[in-house]
Design goal:
By secondary structure, this protein is of the alpha+beta class. The protein folds into three domains: about 60 residues, no CATH class; about 40 residues; about 120 residues, Distorted Sandwich (Glucose Permease (Domain IIA)), CATH 2.70.70.10. Helix content is about 30%, strand content about 25%. Strands 3, 4, 5, 6, 7, 8, 9, 10, 11 and 12 form a ten-stranded antiparallel beta sheet that branches. Strands 1-2 form a two-stranded antiparallel sheet. The protein is elongated.
Length: about 290
């Protein structure tokens, strides 16, 4: 019992640490501690040092100095590789479906529809289309009113094929991630390219619109001869203003990832319109 009481007293015994002036022997600073308080103080200091070190590494750029931790450039390359891989998978899937349909056509079978499947729950043969007198009268009235309207309806196939003589300058060079599709109302082509690449005008023309929208970010539209309009979306910044004259191949914007919708990485959404009708850019431009 005596030994245990002695040990307890040793833990409770107070010690004084002081700093004195060597000339005047004046006590400048002092502190009184027991072994128990000294142990708690040292533990708190060690815990604080460990916590501060973890916070510095976790929330600052010091973590990039850890061997094996990716830096900013490496993480960006990983992201771009993932985007290119996704685009490559889509291209391979479309290629496989194309060859499957081609094989089915050669074999005399019906090709598989890539986009829609007929609803078998409805009996389409029982549908009877008949024109009522009111419908016929309405059709005749509308046709008479719009008989001399030159802007009505899409452009004719002859006028679209006449664009084959024009030389379109490619806005960017890259990988096509999403193609033109009227059924999904995707009126342009998405091209993945290097971030901060410059976007070039496809033809000579005049900038008719520059601005920013929540869906597509920074947008620029250019009016070209022959009623052609080109549209460039999701830009990081615009190099031209409304009313500027541009030449074919002249930089007009910088590729980016602006906009809160319809984007998953740096790319250019490019649209080509002729007389108010969207065209498939891949039929006129080699990206």
């Amino acid at each position: 019992m005596a030994k245990n009481d002695k040990k307890k007293r040793n833990w409770r015994d107070k010690y004084r640490f002081s700093v004195s002036n060597d000339t005047t022997f004046e006590e400048v600073w002092r502190v009184r501690l027991t072994k128990y308080n000294a142990f708690l103080l040292i533990t708190a200091i060690v815990f604080f040092i460990i916590t501060a070190t973890i916070c510095l590494i976790a929330f600052t750029n010091l973590r990039e100095f850890i061997p094996g931790y990716p830096d900013v450039i490496m993480r960006r390359n990983i992201l771009m590789s993932a985007i290119r891989l996704d685009s490559l998978e889509n291209e391979l899937e479309l290629r496989d479906k194309y060859f499957s349909n081609l094989n089915a056509i050669i074999s005399g079978n019906e090709p598989v529809d890539l986009y829609s499947v007929q609803d078998t729950s409805q009996t389409y043969k029982s549908i009877n289309f008949r024109n009522s007198p009111e419908d016929s009268a309405l059709r005749a009235s509308i046709e008479a009113q719009e008989k001399f309207n030159l802007n009505l309806g899409p452009s004719s196939p002859e006028s679209v094929t006449s664009l084959a003589g024009l030389h379109f300058f490619p806005p960017v060079k890259g990988i096509i991630s999403s193609r033109f599709d009227l059924r999904t109302k995707h009126f342009g082509t998405d091209i993945v390219t290097k971030p901060k690449s410059t976007v070039a005008a496809v033809l000579d023309g005049t900038v008719i619109l520059t601005g920013w929208t929540m869906e597509t970010g920074y947008v620029i539209q250019i009016q070209h001869p022959n009623n052609i309009v080109s549209v460039y979306k999701h830009n990081e910044s615009l190099l031209k203003e409304t009313g500027d004259l541009v030449r074919a191949g002249e930089p007009v914007s910088v590729v980016g990832d602006s906009g809160e919708l319809y984007t998953s990485g740096p790319h250019l959404h490019f649209e080509l319109w002729y007389k108010g009708t969207p065209l498939d850019p891949e039929k006129h431009i080699l990206f």
